Structure to design on (319 residues):
């Protein structure tokens, strides 16, 4: 079969012939892959930088996808940490880590949206007790996961949704998706933090895809400008596009009822993640959320990798 193959962490994968995968226990099944998303997590898998990387090569990248099993049913599946990923004509899935999709589901949309949508859906359902009427700030709202977070926070009944991001064009588009205010991330971290302090100091929840210097500055600004420092503020760290570490002053944690939690593989159990997938897939299939996606044939995987570095669209490979 054909598959995207990573032979070196310093080169993008290439489409090559590889042996067909075979199940090794009764819970596994082979699926014909229909669509697999090129998420940031897949790029970090393929360049060896993700925290789960074992350094072993070669590997077929891809952490999730949509496929059809021998039972004829269409499924969305999440793979365990494996060297036989979803960017192949066929892969082996654990049926317990998959859900059957509603008839007529759009495989490209589901493969594109599940990963970025899952980030905020699971965070708001499993890492905080999010209540309708609460106010949310999204840091890094202009990416796929951020724009999903705007829509998902609204879907869960958020009152105000403040969206902060760099790209002015994408930021403007978030108002149509449900953002009540937007703050452009521009200039140095302190300048942005001051604007965030003016607009978003009293939010209940921060959904953070940035981390790094912008997060440290924003956290201080929000705590400082907060009208009621005894009102709980939960900061959910989900991504780190602006830096892997952030210098948080200890006073920020003492001076307000600030709680920092993370959400992702490990901090949420696989069982809890899987429990959320059917409802999320249902919403995505129904077209509740807008996702900017495009498909690329598996043979053009090298071009897809190059494009992914520049486009804001979520690329989906189709074997
Ligand atoms: N923990 C989880 O469960 C989970 C799940 C999904 C994703 N994630 C993580 O969430 C993050 C975002 O994922 P995604 O799917 O949205 O990726 P994406 O679609 O590639 O978007 C990333 C966005 O980050 C912005 N960005 C990059 N560097 C920045 C900086 N220094 N300051 C401000 N903005 C910056 C860019 O926005 P501009 O266009 O405005 O420059 C870009 O659009 C990644 O770290 C990903 O690994 C985590």
């Amino acid at each position: 079969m054909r598959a995207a193959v990573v032979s070196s962490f310093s080169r993008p994968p290439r489409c090559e012939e590889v042996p067909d995968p075979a199940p090794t226990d009764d819970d596994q099944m082979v699926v014909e892959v229909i669509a697999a998303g090129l998420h940031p997590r897949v790029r970090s898998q393929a360049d060896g930088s993700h925290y789960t990387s074992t350094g072993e090569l070669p590997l077929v990248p891809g952490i999730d996808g949509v496929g059809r099993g021998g039972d004829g049913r269409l499924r969305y599946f999440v793979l365990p940490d494996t060297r036989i990923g979803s960017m192949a004509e066929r892969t082996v899935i654990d049926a317990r880590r998959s859900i059957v999709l509603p008839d007529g589901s759009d495989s490209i949309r589901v493969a594109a949206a599940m990963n970025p949508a899952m980030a905020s859906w699971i965070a708001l359902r499993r890492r905080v007790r999010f209540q309708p009427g609460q106010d949310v700030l999204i840091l890094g709202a202009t990416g796929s996961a951020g724009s999903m977070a705007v829509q998902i926070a609204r879907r869960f009944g958020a009152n105000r949704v403040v969206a902060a991001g760099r790209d002015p064009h994408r930021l403007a588009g978030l108002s149509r998706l449900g953002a009540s205010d937007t703050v452009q991330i521009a200039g140095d971290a302190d300048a942005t933090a001051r604007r965030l302090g003016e607009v978003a100091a009293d939010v209940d929840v921060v959904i953070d895809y940035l981390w790094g210097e912008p997060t440290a500055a924003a956290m201080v600004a929000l705590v400082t400008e907060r009208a009621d420092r005894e009102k709980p503020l939960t900061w959910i760290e989900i991504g780190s596009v602006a830096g892997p570490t952030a210098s948080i002053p200890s006073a920020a944690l003492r001076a307000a009822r600030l709680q920092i939690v993370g959400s992702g593989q490990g901090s949420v159990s696989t069982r809890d993640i899987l429990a959320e997938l059917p409802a999320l897939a249902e919403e995505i299939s129904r077209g509740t959320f807008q996702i900017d996606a495009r498909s690329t044939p598996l043979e053009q995987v090298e071009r897809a990798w190059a494009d992914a570095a520049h486009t804001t669209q979520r690329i989906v490979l189709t074997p």
User: Anything to note?
Assistant: The first strand starts at residue 2 and ends at 5. The chain has nine helices and 15 strands. Residues 39-41, 115-116, 118-119, 140, 142-146, 165-167, 170, 185, 209-210, 214, 238-242, 263-264, 312 surround NAP (CB under 6 Å).
